[in-house]
């Protein structure tokens, strides 16, 4: 965020070394905070919609990590709310926010989601694209401006986004998916 940087603390011990690797590349002009034990937090469990951060409670992100994030972000003017992750590795495996549709830039933001998240009251008022069950991996997509990176092979989801004016960029991520990787997992947004 413009106010500062938050470094996650992965639950998987094999991934905890990633924090030090990223820390050495942080810009010096902004403060940074690190989530620490007993808290765990992976950004794959964090969905930002405007000034609210929804944090999925999963095997990778716990309540203590969520609370540390809340203590960091609330003074900066952001809200933090915990959400259950009923299935899937991370929250972003099944729900992603794309921002306003290019075809309606002043309209509601677009949410791409599995059916499990579609009816949550936190998402009321958004333009919700429910991904068909046979296209479940397509919910793990990433908007960059008017373009959306979507895993290749999911034409119904791609068409729904295209009809909203997004430029759909289909990317083959099959090999990454074998290790539970997805479009959002493979991205560092700075």
Give a structural overview.
A hairpin with a 2-residue loop joins strand 9 (142-144) and strand 10. This protein has helices at 17-23, 63-73, 115-118, 155-162, 174-177; strands at 5-7, 32-34, 46-49, 52-57, 79-84, 95-100, 109-113, 127-130, 142-144, 147-151, 167-171. It folds into two domains: 1-92, no CATH class; 94-190, 5-stranded Propeller (L-arginine/glycine Amidinotransferase, Chain A), CATH 3.75.10.10. The protein is α/β, with parallel strands linked by helices. It is globular and about 40 Å long. The protein is built from five helices and eleven strands, in the order E-H-E-E-E-H-E-E-E-H-E-E-E-H-E-H. It has a three-stranded mixed β-sheet, covered by helices on one side. A three-stranded mixed β-sheet has the order 6-7-8. The protein has a three-stranded mixed β-sheet with strand order 9-10-11, covered by helices on one side. The mean pLDDT is 92. The relative contact order is 0.12.
Q: Topology, please?
A:
Blueprint: E1 5-7, H1 17-23, E2 32-34, E3 46-49, E4 52-57, H2 63-73, E5 79-84, E6 95-100, E7 109-113, H3 115-118, E8 127-130, E9 142-144, E10 147-151, H4 155-162, E11 167-171, H5 174-177
CATH second-level architecture of the largest domain: 5-stranded Propeller
What is the string of SSEs from the N terminus onward?
A: EHEEEHEEEHEEEHEH
Mean pLDDT, to the nearest integer, reads: 92
Q: Measure the end-to-end span.
A: 9 Å
Across the major sheet, the strand order is 3-4-5
Biggest beta sheet summary:
3 strands, mixed
């Amino acid at each position: 965020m413009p106010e500062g940087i938050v470094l996650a603390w992965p639950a998987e011990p094999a991934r905890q070394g990633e924090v030090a690797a990223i820390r050495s590349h942080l810009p010096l002009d902004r403060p940074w905070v690190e989530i620490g034990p007993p808290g765990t937090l992976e950004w794959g469990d964090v969905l930002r919609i405007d000034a609210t951060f929804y944090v999925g409670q999963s095997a990778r992100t716990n309540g203590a990590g969520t609370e540390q994030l809340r203590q960091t972000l609330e003074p900066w003017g952001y809200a933090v709310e915990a959400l259950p992750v009923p299935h899937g590795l991370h929250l972003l495996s099944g729900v992603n926010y794309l921002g306003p549709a290019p075809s309606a830039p002043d309209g509601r933001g677009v949410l791409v989601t599995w059916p499990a998240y579609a009816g949550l009251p936190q998402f009321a008022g958004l333009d919700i694209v429910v991904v068909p069950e046979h296209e479940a991996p397509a919910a793990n997509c990433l908007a960059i401006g008017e373009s959306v990176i979507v895993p290749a092979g999911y034409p119904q989801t791609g068409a729904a986004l295209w009809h909203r004016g997004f430029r759909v960029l289909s990317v083959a991520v099959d090999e990454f998916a074998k290790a539970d990787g997805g479009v959002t997992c493979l991205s560092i947004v700075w």
